[in-house]
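INFO batch 0412 | record 1 of 1 | parsing
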Amino acid sequence: MIFDTEKNIFCEICELPLPYPRLAAMPDTRRCTKCEYSNEKVNNDVKFSDVPIGLRGNCPSCQKKREKGIVVIYQNSNNKSFFLGCFIFPKCMWSINKYWDELNES
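INFO prediction complete | emitting tokens
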């Protein structure tokens, strides 16, 4: 997803930044797609994890360097497991596997 790192607008429910394409399509929206449509029927066979609450928002490494990175979930292309990393990779190489079990529940 692409974010406007200069003028982030955050979802009024989950407090995550809204992707630029959503804001371009719906400039007045104040909710992310997930929160907007959370009342719709969800396929319970597929589970997608959220960024753990303590890490939502700015990347810890980028904060120290006064950069504009945001923590997101990536999927390893080799083993298909999930991990947390900075969305401005490869400029910021921060990642963490501390929440591996939580992100990869089956």
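INFO post-check: Residues 20-25 form the longest helix (6 residues).
INFO record closed
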